[in-house]
Structures are given as structure tokens and as C-alpha cells.
Amino acid sequence: MKKAVIDTNKCHKCIVCSTIKQCPVNAITQERKYIFKVEHPMIDQNKCVGCGKCASVCRFKKDTVIRIIKN
Ligand code: SF4
Ligand code: SF4
């Protein structure tokens, strides 16, 4: 089965991560620290079905922030 893995060093911690609403199984969450400060998104590996949507809608996908791997 495939899973999405986020490279936390490459993620730009966008204020509203573009991947969250696109995930069909709601596997992605993002913690807000302050109004304009957020953490990188977290991917629940138990929910992720490896569809790849998050990797394709990430604003910095050219940096390969999210990779889909076989586990
Ligand atoms: S859109 Fe991409 S770079 Fe921005 S917070 Fe989400 S995963 Fe990180
Ligand atoms: S690969 Fe698909 S199911 Fe997994 S986190 Fe990304 S959008 Fe959600």
C-alpha cells in the first residue's frame, strides 16, 4: 500500500496548507500555534490511502515536499 510522507524540512508551513481540504479521507491536519504561525501538516498514516492528491496540490510541489512511497 502507498502512503504520503511529508518532508518537514522542505515544507514552507503555509498559513493554510492547500492539501488539507483536498484529502479524500481527511488524513491531514495542521496545528495552529498563533494566528499567523502554523506547524507543517501532519498525515495520519492509518487513514492515508496513498492517492497522491496532497502531493499534487502542495503549493511547493516543485520542491517535492510530499512524496508517495510504498510501505
Ligand atoms: S502547501 Fe505544501 S509547503 Fe505549504 S504547508 Fe502544505 S505541505 Fe507544506
Ligand atoms: S495521499 Fe491521498 S489519502 Fe494520503 S494524505 Fe495525501 S490526499 Fe490524503
UniProtKB/TrEMBL annotation:
Limits of the 4Fe-4S ferredoxin-type domain: 2-33, 39-68
InterPro entries: 4Fe4S_Fe-S-bd
Domain of life of the organism encoding this protein: Bacteria
Gene3D superfamilies with a match to the protein in the record: 3.30.70.20
Pfam families (UniProt xref): Fer4_2
Stated name of the protein: 4Fe-4S binding protein
Lineage: Bacteria, Bacillati, Bacillota, Clostridia, Eubacteriales
